[in-house]
Structures are given as structure tokens and as C-alpha cells.
Amino acid sequence: MRVGMQHRAGFGQWLRALRDTRGLTQEELAEASGSSVRTIREMERGRVRTPQRRTVALLADALGLAGADRDRFVGLARAGHRPQPDPGVVAAAPVLPSELPAAVPNLVGREAELTVLARLTTGVTDGSATTASVVVLHGPPGTGKSSLAVAAGHRLGTAFTDGQLFLDLHGTAPTDTGRADGARVDTGRVDTGRTGGAFAGIVDPAEALAGLLRSLGVPEEAIPGQPEQRGRLFRTLTRDRRLLIVVDDAADEAQVRPLLPAGRHCLTLVTSRRPLTGLTGAVRVPVGLLAPDAAWRLLASITGEDRLAADPTGTAELVELCGRLPLAIRVAGNRLASRPGWPVGQLVAQLADPRRRLTALTAGDLDVRATFDVSYRRLGATIAGVFRRASLVPGAEFDAGLLAAVTHVDVESAAAAAEELVDAGLLLPRGDRYTFHGLTRIYARERLALEE
């Protein structure tokens, strides 16, 4: 491709996308604009170096473009009028997007989930899927959903020959939370390396669409201003591509729905604390606590097997004190790794007191309490009150009736609040009963002591 062809291809690509989103054939657009079908075809193929300004204006009229969208359309067409460099100079080949962050080196205990994702990938790539496939990896805070999605993306990404895209929607971005000293806290999610970090705020779908279009090679001046048109262009461009898209940390369905591609050879992996039940046709894969042996293996991958083998009883107790929560186990492992002289029992002693446990489960910018804070701060006042008072229920499990008794609401309201807390990842379902994860009960008692 000669230098300058990219400008013309960009105009032609956008012209075709605009025509497709308006449901027009080349013949219909030619008739509406007073152009020939051949001219439309050649412009869409990027073979017209200098489209006539009058032709461009008539096309803009026929497509109903106005304001900033019209200016972008005209500006992109004019790019072809710029003086071209030596026609013998060849431009570099376009780079396929490969945007996944680095995978964690020690993902363990997720073999079943990876098998499900591999099977879905086969359905997408072998042509048996009839629509674009969407998978929601959901579960409580700290279970490693982002790490799983990124690791799966690296393992499966080669099947998607048009590239891999990555979006961090910051759906759990803290607002007024954080450590008392003002330091940045990390909720255990994969570091995406994107500007803004954990405090960038929830990403608007329109901005996310603009980022996806840039990743697909759409020039800045060709990105539509209206969110609906950005979505149409994105779906047009993904219709015939084989893409893997990882959408990390989604807040809700409304944030995700505009970002779903149209192509049946595309796979979208979404991570969220909520199951996003409003996404029609999505496959939901719960990401829960680790099995005891997997939790041990994760800890050993950080501290070394010999250190744990020296005190198997203490190690088993440490795993349970961490609630088999991957984030907590990583924090515990990092603390032991940074203190090579500590026996496992020393950290067990620090975690044994529930009043000190969440404070002890902090290592650098990894903070277990902070990841619970994010979900709690997004609860309504009534639901938050039910969560706090549920920590007063004796025993491991409880039903809506017992929850109603300790929270002073009716049974129907208690059941609805419990389901909301399950969706937020702060309670775990057990049939028609509920239970706390061990660390979330401690957190709920902390909030109760602070607020009531």
C-alpha cells in the first residue's frame, strides 16, 4: 500500500459503514446523491484518490450528515487531496490489535472455567455459532475474574486472526473510598496499564466505543460524534472479522450492551461482580472461591512449596483464614515472600483475631478491605443496612425469615435484599438459604460497629 492510500481507504471504509448503517444499497445511495454506482463502489474500495467536493457534499446530504459528523466526513475526504509523497514509498503493514495485559504467571484452580471458554471458542471459530458469543465471568470481589479473563484471552487469542481488543470499564472504580493516608489502593484486578488507574471513574460506553474504533484503525476524524452512530460503525466493522474482545470490570448491562460486536466469529469475555442477567443470550460462568488444594497451590507458587511443607497444619489454617479467596491468598503469599524468616505460623497468629484480619491482609497496594468497600459503597441505604445487620445472624447459614428477624424488615423485603447482596457478591447463595464468605462477615461487622 502506498503512503496516502490509508487516508483514502479510511474515507471509503467510513462511507461504506455509513451506507450500511442507513440500510442503503450502493444503487440507492447513487440515486439519492446523483452519483454513479461505479463512483460509489470505487470510493468505498479506496480507489478514488481525490473525490470531488461537490460529490462529497451530495453524499453527505444523501446520508443525512450534519454538524460535527458532516465536518468529519468532508475532512476525511479532503485528506485525499493532500500532496502525496513518492509513490514508490510503501507504508508499513497495518498492525493487528493485541491489547491484552500481561497474564498472571500463577493462575491455578480455574481449569473447569478454562475448559468452558475453550469449548465456546471452538464454537465461534469453527462456524457452528450463529451469532456473536458473549461470556460473563461473574463472582464476588477478589475471586480473580480479571486474571482469568486475561489468561484465557492469551490462551485462546490465536484463534481470532483479526486480533484481540481489551477494555477496562472501571465499573468498580472507587469514588470516595481508599486508605486513610490517601495512598492508592488496589482491589486485586489485573493492572491494565491504562491512564487513570483505579480512580479514573466508570467509563461511558460512548468513550469505550471510540476506543474500540481507534483500535480497529478508524482515524480520529472519522469517529462519529453520536454514540448511536459509533455503535453502528463498530458493528459494521466487526461483522466479518474474527475478534476476541475482553471487557473488564463492567458495572451493569447498559455499560456493556453497546460494545457487543455483530460478527458471529467474535467472542466477547465480560467480567463483572454481577451476573448481568439482562444480557440476552450470554453464557454465564461463575468464578468462586478456590478449592482447598488449589488455594494451597496458589500459595505455594508465591512462597515456595518447601516453606509450606514445613508446616502443613499451619498452611491449611492460613488458607481457611483467607477464606480461600484468591486475592487474600495472594496478599498472604506476598507477605510471607517479603519476610523469608517468618514461619507460616507467625502470619496465622496475626490473622487469627478477626478484628485484625482485614488490616493484616494488606500487602503494598493490594488491599482486601478496599475490594469489599467498592461493592458496599454502591449499595442503597436499605440494602447496606441489611448487609450490616446480617452479620448478627448466628450460625453459618440463614434464610430470609431469620434475616428479617435481625434486620427488622418483612420477610419479602429481606429476601429481595439478600438477592441483591448475592448479585453484588457480598452474600453467597446456598439453595434457598444464604451465607457470608468468612471475610465479608468480618467486613460487615466492621461496618456495623462504625455506622450503628
Please sum up the structure shown:
By secondary structure, the chain is α/β, with parallel strands linked by helices. It is built from 21 helices and 10 strands. The strands form 3 sheets. It has a 5-stranded parallel sheet with strand order 2-3-4-1-5, with helices on both faces. Strands 8-10-9 form a 3-stranded antiparallel sheet.
Q: What is the fourth-level CATH superfamily of the largest domain? A: P-loop containing nucleotide triphosphate hydrolases
Whole-number radius of gyration?
A: 26 Å
Q: Which parts are unreliable, with pLDDT below 50 for 5 consecutive residues or more?
A: 1-9, 81-93, 176-188, 190-199
Looking across the biggest beta sheet, what order are the strands in? Answer: 2-3-4-1-5
Please describe what this structure looks like:
By secondary structure, the protein is an alpha/beta fold. The chain folds into 4 domains: 5-81, lambda repressor-like DNA-binding domains (434 Repressor (Amino-terminal Domain), Orthogonal Bundle), CATH 1.10.260.40; 111-286, P-loop containing nucleotide triphosphate hydrolases (Rossmann fold, 3-Layer(aba) Sandwich), CATH 3.40.50; 292-369; 379-451, Arc Repressor Mutant, subunit A (Orthogonal Bundle). Helices cover 49% and strands 8% of the residues. The protein is built from 21 helices and 10 strands. The protein has helices at residues 5-21, 26-33, 37-44, 53-62, 67-78, 111-125, 145-156, 205-215, 227-238, 253-256, 292-303, 305-309, 312-321, 326-338, 344-352, 354-360, 368-377, 381-390, 400-407, 411-423, 438-451, and strands at residues 133-138, 164-168, 244-248, 267-272, 283-286, 362-363, 366-367, 397-398, 428-430, 433-435. Strands 2-3-4-1-5 form a 5-stranded parallel β-sheet, sandwiched between helices. Strands 8-10-9 form a 3-stranded antiparallel β-sheet. It has a two-stranded antiparallel ribbon with strand order 6-7. The longest helix has 17 residues, at 5-21. It is elongated and about 80 Å long. The protein starts with a helix and ends with a helix.
